[in-house]
Structure formats: structure tokens, C-alpha cells
Amino acid sequence: MTTLPKEEAARAILARNDRGGYTVPTDRLYPFQWNWDSAFVAMGFALFDVDRAYRELERLIEGQWDDGMMPHIVFHAPSDTYFPGPDVWGTRHRIPTSGITQPPVFGMALRHVHEAAVASGLDGATERTKALFQAALRSHRWWLSARDPEGLGLVSILHPWESGSDNSPAWDEALARVPTTTTTTIRRKDTGHVDASMRPRDEDYQRFIHLVDTYRDCGWDPKRQWAAAPFKIADVQMTAILARSTADLMHLAESLGAEDEKSELSRMHDRLLEGLTRRWRPELSRFVNLDLISGQDIDTPTQAAFIPLAALTLDDAQRSAVTAEIERWLDGMVVGVPSAPAFSPAFEPKRYWRGPVWAVVNWLIADGLRLNGADDLARRIERGTVQAIEKAGFCEYFDPTTGEGLGGDTFSWTAAAYMVLGRRT
Description:
The protein is mostly helical. Among the domains are: 141 residues, no CATH class; 115 residues, no CATH class. The chain contains 16 helices and 10 strands. Strand 7 and strand 8 form a beta hairpin. Helix 2 packs parallel to helix 5, helix 3 packs parallel to helix 6 and helix 14 packs antiparallel against helix 15. 56% of the residues are buried. Keywords: Glycosidase, Hydrolase. One of its GO terms (molecular function) is Glc3Man9GlcNAc2 oligosaccharide glucosidase activity. Belongs to the glycosyl hydrolase 63 family. This is Neutral trehalase.
């Protein structure tokens, strides 16, 4: 096993951000439990404390809705350092939560944690996995019924926050159609913790909150939201993560002897892979989203274009094309992969999802490259990520042109990524 120079510091960050069985991404800026953050964090914990890894996922599903949705925020304890809080969301769950979801990394994390538990001989692991498996299955059923009601084999986001890539250039055109009027008073807290030049703009927030207002007025009912949504994107990043998590749940179903569930998951998996495969654009050497309001492809280059590698086996021509495209994105960068390439007119190397490098995105891209036989490129990306963290610290994201750490510091999923990726390099 690789001994990492900052392993102790990474573990200390997870301990510092522990709030009693769940981990906040970082203090003050993100003071609650976030969905996909916790899934990545659980995989980090699994390297040295499997019981705590299980607990991370168990605390997350405390917020799961009866219809299966896993919200993107669970408000376990009050805090006044974040907007919008539970009063704005107005959901009626037994624990306060947001009303939207986030990338479903949960299934990937559960397989990772279960396998670590089996390897460590942890008592009671199988029963804990079974309960979490059923929660994951309910979530996947929700995804396909609520977010692919038309059977495209692609799941959609109804809010940019659901993608995890809040202010991605991919949303610019679709988001411009969303009004800036809100019935909620906007009290941004993020720019009190992080320089405004690294965060979404005020206009973005007005549109984000307009969408929250719209869906709250729908009573958070999925069918009403689908009908009312002014923003509706079939997202290849979300679909790919769901497909990868579905494959991991299929593997778990087999090990748990859950044959009926494995068959159901297999049908889901086939549907998602068929949908993803249709989003490949050979002339662009990448996968593209679909705007369901306009009916048009979104060919804006962002990191989402490469996440399908984590779910699909590419043919030789696709593999050559996509690795060459990633190399193009890495050219001239101190650290890659940027969330938008330097050759894009939308590129802003310091502004959130408009250029900066995210350790967990590199984790997914490297996983996809390894699945597709591009081990050397995967290793380069992993090594570069680890080196950037060692130089700049456990920051939320990094400037690809300088390697400077940006956003929040002492960030939980960056610490988890450091430990996981560092063992591969």
C-alpha cells in the first residue's frame, strides 16, 4: 500500500468535519450533509474505518423520501451560515431536507464499503449492506420513473444544483430562459466565506431560486414539477453515474443472493446504457447533453462529456477519440482535467464549475479511463490530482492554469479523493 505524505492530514479533515455519523463538506460554507459528497467521503472512510463508512451512508438515507428520492441536502442540525435553508425549501419530510437530488454516487459507494467490510471481517456487515441496498434500489426506481418518464434511457435534471455542476457553461443557454424573479428573498451566505470571483454570479442565484420557488409551488410532486419545469436537461453525467451505480448494485445483488432485484437492475442498466450510447458525437469526440425544452443538443464542452466512460465500454475508435480529446484539454494545464477547457470561450479558471479542477471529477474520469483500458492516462490524472492537493492543500477545487487551491478549504471529499487516488499512483 502506498504511504501518502498527507494521509494523516486527510483523516484529520474527515474527523474535523464529522458531525456525529455524517460529514459536512466543510465548516460554515456547507454546514449540512450533502448527498454525493457523503458518498465519496464514505469511500474514503472505508480505507481505515469501515464502520464509520457505513454510518455515513446510513445517516444520508435518514433523509430519503418515501417515494425513493435522496435529497441533495439533509439538514440534520440547524445552521445560519448557508442559504437556502430548510425554510426556503418548504419540504414536509420527517427530517428537514432540500427538495431536489444530486448525482447518485450512493450505489458506487455502497459496493466500495461492502467490499471493504468483507475484507476486514466487520461483524454485521451483510445486514447493514442489505438495508442500504434496498434504499439504493428505491432511489434508482425513483430516478427512472420521476426523471425519465418518457423512457429515453436518460435521466434529467430540473435544477442546475442537481447536476452537482451548479454554474456549468453547459446550462447557460437553458438557464437564460429561466426568469430572474423570485418570491424568496435571496440572502447569499457563500460569498461571505469565499471570494465572489470563485462563485456563481448573483444573476445565476436569482434563476436558481426562481426554480426552487417553482417546484415548491408544485408541492415537490414529481409529476407536477416535470410539467412545470422551465429547465429540463437530459444529463449525460447524471445518467452515467446512475448507470455505473446500477452496475455496482447488480454486483451487490449477486453477492447478496437477490436474484429478482438483480434482474430488475439489469433492465434499468440496459435502458441507461442504450440512452447514453446515443449521446456520443464522433465529430466532437465526446458525449453531449440534451435540452428537453428546446429539443437541441448541448454541445458546450464540460467535464460531463467524459463521465460516461465510467459506465460504458467504448469501441476502439471512440476510445482513441476520447483519449485524444482529454489530452487536448490537459495541454498547457498545470493540473487537469478542467471542468471547462481553456479553448472554450466560457472558460474561467477560478469560477466554480466554469474551469476549475475537482478531485472527485478526476476520480470518476480516471475510473472511466481504467475501465476502457487507458491506464496510463488515468494514472497521470490521478497523480496530478494528488500532487495538486499536496501542494495547495485540501481545497474545494483548483485553478488548472496555476494549481492554486480555490473555494472552501479543509474539504471532506478532497481528503477522501486524496486517499483513494493516492493509493493508485
